[in-house]
Amino acid sequence: MKEASFYRKLDQGKVQCLLCPHQCILGEGQTGLCRGKQNQDGKLLAINYGQLVSISLDPIEKKPLYHFYPGKTILSTGPNGCNFNCQFCQNWQISQEKVPTRMVYPENLVALTLDENSLGIAYTYTEPIIWFEYILDTAQLAHEKGLKNVLVSNGFINPEPLAKLLPFIDAINIDLKSINPAFYLKYCNGKLEPVLESIRIASQHTHLELTNLVIPTLNDSDEEIEMLLEFLQSLGKPVPLHFSRYYPAYRMKIPPTDPEELLKIFQKASRVLPYVYLGNIRNTVGNNTYCPDCHNLLVERNGYRTRLVGIEDHHCNHCGREVDLVGV
Ligand code: SF4
Which of 10, 14, 23, 24 has most ligand 1 atoms within 8 Å of its beta carbon, as the pocket-test mutant? Predict the structure, then answer.
């Protein structure tokens, strides 16, 4: 347990957490929406500090990150809880329910990562932002040992803590759930604009990829997909976009995304963005990375088997264009 980094004291022993845009106001003994912060004796404490809900060595492609050290494995872990309440959460058993955790100190997690010969540490599975204090301590230590830090997040964090964290984060995948503010309010208990702002900030400071879970009738209209693509184009750099197939989970009963519809969305996006991928589906398209200039195959992916086939010394081996991938 550790004192929270971003909060202020209010009257009558209350405190206000300033880590994410919910800005929970908590009386004595109360716990925030994410269950990671608690007011104890007028101080806000990170009660989830070092409490791991799960740990595993994953392919980096599983995060998903397709343009960051392709083919490497990364030790992945996360806290119990989330600052969203998405009705379609695919990991709701550990994000929305309280489950047993185990304490692992930052130095022990870093030592384990080195033992596993992992690229680094991915803070993922649930919502790592609610683990801010633990990630900051661990990520600094990991950097000192030459390891990479990866965040897989909903992006719902205030700009000040994000700016403090980003110097230690080498890559981030942000889940942009919809480009419609009403969607965030109705289905996530969140807000769109702070997520867009995090994406804009992250795009300037670290390697960024985005994921969009396509839910039939809720976020897949032509208009919405076009707005999503316009937003990506506005970032001014080629940010890889992963469209992910939805399956019914938690409180959402809508049938899974039709693969044909997903394919249409993929084709539409591929006309305006250089790097579009499909995930959560057995597919023959949307796996590989091609050179945007000459369409040479750069990275071939089959499930989680990855082969660098068209890259030589960070350049396309056909036309010589510098590749938009880190660590190759
Ligand atoms: S991080 Fe948790 S406690 Fe803090 S404002 Fe967000 S939901 Fe509330």
Answer: 24
Q: What is the pLDDT of residues 191-209, one digit of tens each?
A: 999 999 999 999 999 999 9
pLDDT of residue 282: 85
CA atoms within 13 A on the CB side of 203: 19
Delineate the domains of the chain, giving CATH numbers in brackets: 2-46 (no CATH), 51-282 (3.20.20.70), 288-328 (no CATH)
Percentage above 70 pLDDT, the chain: 100
* Cβ(24) – ligand 1 distance below 6 Å: yes
Q: Whose CA is nearest to atom 2 of ligand 1?
A: 34
DSSP-H helix ranges across 171-273: 181-183, 192-205, 222-234, 259-270
Q: Is the CB of 83 under 6 A from ligand 1?
A: yes
